[in-house]
Every structure is written in C-alpha cells, then in structure tokens.
Amino acid sequence: MNKIFASIFIAVSFFSTSPAQQSEILKQYSAKFPDAPAAFIERSETIAILVKNDSLEIFGDILEDMIHLKSQTDVYSTGRVFGSHFTEVKDLKAKTLIWEKNKFKEMHVTEFKKNHDQADGIFYDDSYNYSFTFPSVSLGNRTHLQYRTMMKDARFMPGYIFTSYIPQGKATYTIKTTRQVELVYEVVNDPKHTINFKKYEKGGYVFYEWTATDVPARKNEDESPSVRYFTPHLICYVKSYENKSGKVNVLSSLDDLYAWYNTFVKDLNKESSAELIGIVNKIKQSSKTEIDIVRNVFYWVQENIQYVAFEQGMRGFIPHHGSYVCEKRYGDCKDMANLIVTMLRLADVKSYHTWIGTRDLPYKYSQVPTPLVDNHMIATYISSDKQYYFLDATSDHTPFGLPSSMIQGKEALIGLDPTHYEIKAIPEIPKERNIMTDSVSIRLDGNQIVGSGISSLGGYPKVFGGYALDRSEKEDIKRYVTRLIGKGSNKFYLDNYALSDAYDRDKPTVIDYSFRIGDYFQKIGDELYVNMNLTKEHYNDFINLSLRETPKERDYKYEKIEYCELTIPEGYSVEYLPPNAKADGELLGFETEYTSENGKIVFRKKFYVNYLLMQPQQFEHWNASVKPLSEAYKESIILKKK
Fold first, then answer.
1. Tell me, which fold does domain 19-249 have in CATH?
2. What average pLDDT does this structure show over 58-69?
3. Which CATH architecture has domain 262-425?
4. Model-level pTM?
5. SS3 sequence, 173-184?
6. Beta-carbon contacts of residue 607 (< 8 Å; ≥ 6 apart)
C-alpha cells in the first residue's frame, strides 16, 4: 500500500541569540552531550487543524536548531526534506549561523534540488525530496532549516517520534486547533514518563502540546525492530469535527476506517476479460475440490504476476481491475490481492479483500483505527470448516496455507461485504513447522574430516532459501549452500552438492552434499579429540544486559534436528562420551545425545529458537539458555588407541 507519511531527516530553526549566548550554548551542549558530534537545541513541529469551508485544513510548521559539537561534522552538512502527493512541502528555508569574531555571520542555502529518487523495490513512487547543503558546517556553528507541510487528508496524520539520531535539548510537538475538532491521542513506549503534556486555550484556539527535554540519541542496534516498537512516540488522529451541517466523523471508530477502505474496492471487477475467464476455467477443470481451486489460483498469481511496488497518490490505495493486472502481468500487493479475489469469484469461490500491516508496524486495528496500522493488502479465503487461508502472492516462494512471514501475528481487516468486516489475527507459525534437518556421516582421513550428508529445509527456511537461490548466479549458489550447511570451522570445503525440489513449494528443499573439514580434530599422544557439534548456532551469543536497550527481532521461529555418525577409526576405541545435555528455554532450547554402536559414534541434537520479538525483559531468559548450550558445544569425544 501507499508510503503515505513524509520522513523528515534534518531540520533546524532560527534562534536570534547574541554571540555571548551562542558561546554559552556551545559550552552547555558540549557538557551535556560530551560524546555527541552534534545535538538539536530544539526540534519542534506545530500542526494546525482548522475547519475551513466545511472541511479540514491541515498544515505543519517544522523548525529545528542543530549545534555542531565536534570539528568533524561534515556528515551533517547535507539535508533532505521529504514530501509526497499527500504531504506537500512549501516555504523551505535553510542557513548556517557562523560563529566568527564574537558575532554571527549568516550564510543562506541558495539551492534546493528536487529529486524523485526511487526506493529499492519500488516500480513507481510519487514521493520526492529536496536536497541541499549547509555552508561552513564546523564546531560551534548552528544549522537551521524551516518549512511548512500541507497535509491533504486528516486520516494520514503520522504522529510524532520524540527520539532522533542525535541527542536533543528539547523536542516539542504541538497541535493547534479549535473546539470544533475532537482528537484522540496517546503516548506510547514512555514508561519513565519523559514526555510532558499540557492543554491550553489561547486566542480562540485549543493547543495540545507534548514536550521532552534532554533526549539521548536513539541507539541503532543489530536485529532491532522498527523504532515504533520501542521508542517514545505520539499517536494522534482526528476523531470528528463540527461544521455548519453538524458532526462529521473522520476516524471515530473502525467502522469509519473500513467504510473508507471499502470505497477503494467496491467498484472493481464488474467485468472480466475473456483471457482471465479462460484462465479461471482451466484452473477449475484441473481442480477436484474448492480448496484445490484456491491453491491453484494462488499459485497461478505467484507464478505469473510480477510484483512491483506502485505508489502514486490514491493509486497507492486503489487496486487495478483484475483483468488489467492479468493483461499486464504485473502489479503491487493490492493488485495481486484483488486479482486473487477476482479469479476466485469467477470460479464461484468466496474470498475477501484484506488490509493488514506488516511487522514493521506495531499497531492493531482494535487499538488504533487509522491507516497507521496497515501498509499491505492480501486476500483471505475462509473454508466451509472455518479455516482461514491468508493469501499473500507477493511472497512468491510461500506455500499455500502458510502466511508470509512478514505478517505473522498481525491483525487482518477482512472485508466481508460493503458494510461488514472481521478482524482476525494471523497466527505466529510455530517452530515445529519451520524444520531444518541435517544428517551426516563422517570419517577421519589424515588430518581432516571427510563426510557426506543430506539436509532439508521446510517452512520459512525453505521460503527464504528460495529467495536466496533466485538472486544467485551459479557460483553464488554454491556459496549460499556452503553458508547454509557449512560446519566445523572456516576450513570447511564443499566438494559436491545437488539440490532437489528447491522450487516446489509443497515439498522441502533437499540438499545432498559431500565435504571436507581440514585440521578439525586434535591428536594428543594416543588419543583423538573430536567435537561432533559440527554446527554451533548461538555459541556464546550472550546479550550484554548493561548495554543492549532495544528488542531483538527475527523473521521466524524454527527447529533444527541434526544427526552425525562418526566411523571409529581402526585401532581405536571409545575412551569418553560427553554426557547428554538438555535445556528447555522459553526462547531457545536444545537436547544432545551421544551413543556408541556398531563401530560408530552417533550424535543427535535437537535445537530451537522460539521468538519473533524478544523484549529487553526477556534477555536474562535468553542468556540463561545460551549458557548450557555453549557448555555443551565445548564437549568432545575421546578415542584412545588400543
């Protein structure tokens, strides 16, 4: 769906201060944020929501003031301001205040270049940005920028994120409106109550003001989810307003949001092309049951329609007709969803347009009935026994019956008819459905291990493997397989491999392979030490509880089963087998077993990771499971010469 909201990266406001004050500000902020290269003295946004000509007029004034605290601050000399069809940028001004000989010398930015850069994976995008360069950015100078945004629809209010990539002395978000306008607002992710709120009236207007002071820079940590999951921010939207005709609901409830969304699809698919009808008839003829029809339609769209993102004004919300998408053989998420609905209805199978947010968005329809909740569209089929099938054809390696990984756990808004809808939670796929197995036979040969194995991938591991293989050339495929099944040490070498069923969605991908690992085992006197834990996932992967602040996110839960069979070399006997080990953690667990039988040592391991989003309060649980796992990884068998 549409990338509605403008991103504002660097902005600054004008402060008319004396040279002496400027010097004091530099001292103050250098002391307050000694490690920061720069800081916002103030970052503010004031949104006006006014009733005009019986509708709402909304505009925002953005002001920011940055002081440069280090000599090496060239990275902050460039800026960009973003706009789109829904948020027009106007009155852009920027300058540098240069501290020189105890007085200011103003240097204005004279050139703002308008760009229409396409983001990765976007076929068409109506967003734009103005890029510019501040002159003379250096220690003690201040950079300022201000501009106005004109918002075309009150439903698209994005709220406000109080943290930034550098620290801030003061961050303020203000709404200026009248008593005619009713707002809903909530501050989230602020357990320490760092954001202060006040409401007041002045000059016939009502002001809502949120302020945070001395805000540290937002941390960028590996595997973090989107910032809205953990950083303090404001959710705010217009519930209703009064005009001359009476009360006008905007987003007073989910009913209002759905009624608006339904206008995007209510007039679609009234006629279908002969080509599309012919394709559906062939699918019906080759399908024995209704569920077969749904599966075959889903796979046809996956295989025949190229996904492209397309964002242009309201076109970012309104799908093309199914026949058009079929003819062009490409479309975005809503085009592909609508094509599935169209084809199934032509086959006399009920299915439904479904709005949903990906896991980038932390909100639920049941809590925030606004477009903040969703950025994606799929189709839903409900079987006669009330089984829900969430059909996301943009994920072209995902098998029928498995939702795409990016919508696990999210609420779906299913449009049943023009006035009725249903909210249904997409399940988080349990680890047992995302299975990886690896079975190897190894022997000692000189100073290396030589072996062969069979590995299989099911569920999301197969899906993600399919994407990796699609993007790989022949040599890259071998490197990918090496990363996937590599074991032992960096001296692992993949001799041969063969892939089976890599592109059959309904079967696991199977990899047959042979390999060598150089210098893997140790010989001390008449004893051989061999660590049969050939893969050591999350070895010593402890989270630093004093440093890590943000949650950790992963694409899917999974389970891995390993079997390793070592042929005991001639002339040797088993001196030591490690004890079996087990830990059933909430987030991570494992079980290992060693046996000696028929001249071989068999090592079995079961391992799982069981989270999509790990919150900071769960870090200790994670570490508690990593400890015994890492201890088990250190164990080696000992073979003694007879």
1. Immunoglobulin-like (2.60.40)
2. 95
3. Roll (3.10)
4. 0.90
5. EEEEECCCEEEE
6. 537, 559, 560, 561, 562, 589, 590, 591
